[in-house]
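Q: I have two molecules that I believe assemble together. Could you output structure tokens for the complex as a whole instead of separate predictions?
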Amino acid sequence: MKGMHAKRLRLYLHYVSINVRSSMQYKTSFLLTTLGQFLVSFQVFLGIYFMFRRFESVKGFTYGEVLLCFSTMLLEFSLAEMFGRGFDAFSGMVRTGSFDQILIRPRNEILQVLGSKFELTRIGRMLQAVIMFIYGVTHCGVHWNFCKMITILFMFIGGTAIFCGLFVIYASLCFFTLEGLEVMNIFTDGAREYGKYPIGIYGKKMLIFATVVIPYALVQYYPLLYVWGRRTETYLIFLPLLALLFPIPCLMLWRFGVRRYQSSGS
Amino acid sequence: MKKYLSFFRLRFLTGLQYRTAALAGIATQFAWGFLEIMVMKAFYETDPGVYPMTFRATVSYIWLQQAFLAFFAVWMVDSELFEMISNGNIAYELCRPIRIYSMMTARNLANRTSRAVLRCLPILLVAAFLPKPFRMEPPVGIAEFLLFVVTMLLGLSVTVAFFMLVYVLAFYTISPQGLRIVFCSLVEFLSGGVIPLPFFPEPVLRVLELLPFASMQNVPLRIYSGDIAGEEMVRAVGLQVFWLVALVVVGSMLCRMAERKVALQGG
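A: Yes, here they are, computed for all two components at once.
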């Protein structure tokens, strides 16, 4: 069993290296795309920065607190995107029938879909997320200690799991509709975009939705309350790990879709 | 002129075919509009004193922005044209007795209007009947409304004319993907796509108001609610006309140079 996992990992890394080498063939374009990706999330930061030059706080949250919130959410999303983007291009694979090729190969199909696209250009966003995160950590006014750092780490793990789960749902729906459902963007891009502010500012109803339906609040609002020092309960540290349950039903939907899959024929 | 009109008609009719996509788009834009209004509401309630617009003006700004997203959205650029430029198929277009610049303009205008036509009415209609903080109010007056329509078309034209520069630049690079994304993010931020321009700090705003970016969505979306009025309004409309003329002149000149000099991609 162990050898099997090592083999899978080696295969995945091989996929990654193929993708990296192919995008390095167009160096100027690669550099410009990276710069562009960087600017795309940098403008979101500038938006926040400009708002807080005018307003001292929003619903009691300061610039530093929002900054930490924005940067952790961005990093969670970027991590998930880096690995899970193959699922995003999945509608194309179903439509053109290249998913058939994947199914007949004697390897795990999820692994192959993941490896089909490793977006190196997302490194621009990743880079921006990391810089933003360092800036956020140093400027948020939090007194860091071990527990708070562990909380942030757990937030990364849980957050990446949620976004990956959403990517899987997005792909699974392609089995039934043959095309990507743009509506799903609300839950991925929308969460990244509006998760820059603590979910608390959107009011009670939104907080309930983000706790019960798609558990964003588990990896954003509640653990951040602990990190900011607004709440002190220890269970908040481990709350983000609960989000690891989220991908399970998503993968079940995927399995269901694969079993029902009928080739589009082309 | 007639040929370009038929280019426009063709693209426009093709655009109208994507009705399911439009439906999905409408749902997404509603969610976006709601979230955006919620964020602005949170800021407004925190400190109405430093809020630079009336809240009513912000709400109509956001709904109009969502309804006419296709007019101004930077990612609405015609990717088929980029493909044609990078795979060399543009050669066929060059053989035709048409001006490339006008052809590309017609295509872009048609793409954007057909999408906007499909999406704007349902969004505006529902937005007008929403409960209070989210409801979009009617324009402040008939004159403002007429001016809103005129500046909207001017803003659309400025946006298209600006992106024409990007297409022309794409002639010079083999793989225009990067160029496109850099321009897109710049335009989006500077035109008020991320936060409305009144929320920018004063010194930045003073420079920005003179640039072509402020002549895109900023003017019509704020005239509607009376957020730009009087002398400021006259100046804003004047700048729109100025930038439209300047961008078209520069763009078509560059385009002619590109046509003459550029070696096409084979394939």
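A: One point stands out. Chain A touches chain B through 41 residues (CB under 8 Å).
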